[in-house]
Amino acid sequence: MTATPAWPPQSTPRLFVEQTLGAGPLRIDGPAAHYLVSVMRIAPGDPVKLFDDATGEWLAIAAQVGKRDLVVDVSTCLRPREPVPDLWLCAAPLKKGRVDWLAEKACELGVDRLVPVVTQRTVVDRVKSDRLRSHMIEAAEQCDRTALPALAEAVKLAALLRDWPADRVLFFADETGGLPALDAMRARSGPAAILIGPEGGFTPDERDAIRALPQSVGIGLGPRILRADTAAAAAVSLWMAAAGDWQESRLA
Question: CATH number of the domain that 51 lies in?
Fold first, then answer.
């Protein structure tokens, strides 16, 4: 007996849309339409997967295909928006390319919120939020995610510490020494955040201010010096293994 092919096929194009999804017709234009029409050569009757960071992932069928836009019939919710571990990544902005990579990995690894933090040694004077969000969207499309990290406005370190939530632990990468990261993260459950400084690290005054925060915990990330973007990915991975959704008990 011939096996019934999977529907929709694994090769089905998958896109994020800003509109809240639900059953019914949906017009798609702009870059998303260009990708579907000119790159993927979508024709009437072809399936498309859509997600909106709110209601989940939906199956849609192309109904009308023009040169610069198309109309799809959204029909079935394939899966709801995924649960996201309650982890913030607070990181000093980096140079173009490295900060883009950091935004991608924050999405791929399951961070709930990305917070750019301006420190005394931060060399980037402006955060291009639109570009960072675009990189997170591309990562979510490619990695089959149904949720995107929230992207906060850039904030100065002093303001971040001043307004820090009382119920959220702040693990900060302390290049002068700290608790082994995995042990520290396993010992503290609940809402968490990871703070990564710029290339060159925190100044002594900044480090003292962070340590003075009752919720802060200094952590070490091994015997080697890591670049800031590598340190962020490493710390998030450790937290996901220790307290997030990489735990075997949650995947069983």
Answer: 2.40.240.20
Stated length of the chain: 252
Q: Are residues 20 and 63 in the same domain?
A: yes
d(CA 91, CA 89): 6
In the prediction, which pLDDT does 2 show? Answer: 52
Alpha helices in the chain (DSSP H): 30-34, 98-109, 129-142, 157-162, 181-186, 204-212, 228-242, 248-251
User: Residue 37 burial by CB count (10 A; 0-12/13-18/19+): exposed, middle or buried?
Assistant: buried
In this prediction, residues 141-168 reach a mean pLDDT of 97
Q: Do 53 and 119 share a domain, yes or no? A: no
Parallel, antiparallel or unpaired: strands 70-79 and 24-28: antiparallel
Q: Cα angle at 68 between 130 and 135, to 5 degrees?
A: 20
Structural domain total, the chain: 2
Query: And the tokens for 243?
Result: 């307290």
Residues 116 and 191 in one domain: yes
Confidence of residue 94 (pLDDT cuts 50, 70, 90): confident
Q: Tokens standing for 43?
A: 């024709």
Structural tokens at position 16: 């994020």
